[in-house]
Amino acid sequence: MNRTFRWHLVSKAEVASGLLGEFLSPYGSWTLSEYDLDRDKIAVGVAATDYGNDANPALLVMPEKYAHEAFSWFNVYAPEISPLSQILRVVTFQDWEKYQPKESYTNNIIRSAQWACLTLGEILAQGDSGLDIPTIPLSRAQACFSLTVGRTAMIYQDIEITQNCIDRLAKVERNNGFVQRPVTIHELYPMWSMLEKLTYSRDVAKLNVFDVIEKLERDHGRIGRKESLTSFSGLLSDSVEERVIAFNKYIETVVTPNTKLRNDIVISSSLAAAAFLVGRGTSHLFMLRPWTNQMPLALVWFSFFAAYGGPLFWDLDWTKAVKSIERSISGKFSWESSAPVDLCWAEYLWRTDVFGESSFSQIPKLYPRVLSIEIMPGASCQLRLNIPVSPKGADVARQKLEANNLELKAALDGLLTLASKARDMLSGTNPPPSSGHQSSLGFETEQDSAPVTKRGGRSSGKGKHREDG
User: Fold this and answer.
1) Model confidence at 278, in pLDDT bands (50, 70, 90)?
2) How many CB atoms lie within 10 A of CB 306?
3) Is 217 exposed, middle or buried (0-12, 13-18, 19+ CB in 10 A)?
4) What is the mean pLDDT of residues 121-140?
């Protein structure tokens, strides 16, 4: 990765004018030190490949100690460039020094596909798209915690940095300004920590799904119980009929009596493993449909076993979805590239501390009800804003809908009445009025109106017309 920048040490006022096109002198430093920065000195980096009088700033580095003060200054005195994150990538000097991507990715193809599997499971667990994978908007992957963690793991290949990403996501998750999710970071963490130890299997008999379940049972004090999934050996049978019977027996024995346990880790993982073993892959995802609301975590565990098994165990729809999501995980990261987010991490912290958890609806965003945050350099996550519906607004909308429904009903009733009159006139079943003339439908003049004969025909001033047939 090319870290070469020309650094310009400028004041906050110069940053404001520079980002509006009045930048920079043709001179700059090739090095940057923490001692170069202070309360009024900010480093603006221009990539070496984009250097000259018309070069565009690509990176802004500020001291972490004065970051809040700098963002407040821009918000008050230079609102035209606030939020600053929407103009260029912004990081603190500590993040710039610590988070440096690896030059090459290790086991890129395997790892990125496994993280994509977990991301797909997290999409399914959202619960509002069903389990029909071809119809699911894969753009929702950008709002999955697993994609952010996987992207971080792929870019930096450092356990400590990946843990820092998880800690930041946990802090975001606790923000009441965002909609709470059906599956939490605490529930996802066991899969994230186990994923790095997995390798693809070539044989379902060697997949060791039961080993994973036994480990979870041991960790949660449930080893050796009769309701353990390992007691249902029929799931490993070569007969699909026996596997289905074993699955139904497990449901009847373990799952049904515990339907009130939402996202229990042992039951959710065991249920997912059972469905995976019945289909010997992802083809029997539909077997989890009855429990998507009670145990959405089972859908993510199902995707974990898909990641465990690898492509040989994926059906067509699963494979296409995973390969599409994988592009967002395996792509290279460069400091010079733009960050299509609403807020960088430092600016998110500042806005939360200064304006509170519900202030994000007041800033321009890529999407009206979604805030995109760059959790780590190169790894972002979309969070749906928790915008309450005004009771008064809801009442107005309901009253308007009811009024429209009444108006539509009255119009339909009128059409039905008119159609009934027309049918009676044409069939001759409606007796003529006492005056000897049929009442008009309103589509003809008084001169054109004529009495209806007993045969149902109409007479005119020129004589009777013969009926067809």
Assistant:
1) very high
2) 28
3) buried
4) 87
Checking if the pLDDT of 3 tops 50, the result is yes
The confidence band for 461, taking pLDDT boundaries of 50, 70 and 90, is very low
Cis peptide before 83 (omega within 30 of 0): yes
Q: Which amino acid is at 398?
A: R
Instruction: Report whether 286 contacts 317 (CB < 8 A).
Output: no
Angle 152-155-161 from CA coordinates, rounded to 5° = 50
The reported pLDDT for the residue numbered 447 is 46
The beta strands (E) that lie in 11-131 are given as 42-47, 59-62, 89-92
Phi, psi values for residue 129, rounded to 5°: -125, 0
Residue whose C-alpha is closest to residue 46's, from 77, 82, 80, 19: 19
Q: Other CB atoms closer than 10 Å to residue 255's CB: what's the count?
A: 23
| Residue from 118, 116, 148, 153 nearest 297 by CA | 118
Percent of the chain exceeding pLDDT 90 equals 46
Placement of tokens 């992957």 in the chain? 141
Separation CA 301–CA 29 (nearest Å): 50
In this prediction, residues 386-394 reach a mean pLDDT of 62
Cis peptide before 388 (omega within 30 of 0): no
Give the whole-angstrom CA distance, residue 380 versus residue 343.
9
Given a contact cutoff of 8 angstroms between Cβ atoms, the answer to whether 115 and 154 are in contact is yes
Answer for the pair 72, 347: CB distance below 8 angstroms, yes or no. no
Sheet containing 343-344: give its strands across. Answer: 343-344, 370-376, 379-384
First to last CA, the chain: 88
Whether pLDDT at 169 is above 90:
yes
What's the pTM?
Answer: 0.79
Contact 111, 153 (CB under 8 A): yes
Is the model's pLDDT at 448 over the cut of 50?
no
Polymer length in residues for the chain: 469
Q: How many helices (H) and strands (E) does the chain have?
A: 14, 9
> What pLDDT, on a 0 to 100 scale, did the predictor assign at position 362?
84
Q: Which pairing describes strands 379-384 and 370-376: parallel, antiparallel, or unpaired?
A: antiparallel
Strand partners, 25: none
49 versus 270: which is more confidently predicted?
270
Query: Is residue 107 classed as helix, strand or coil in its secondary structure?
Result: coil
Q: What dihedral do alpha carbons 6, 7, 12, 14 form, nearest 10°?
A: -40
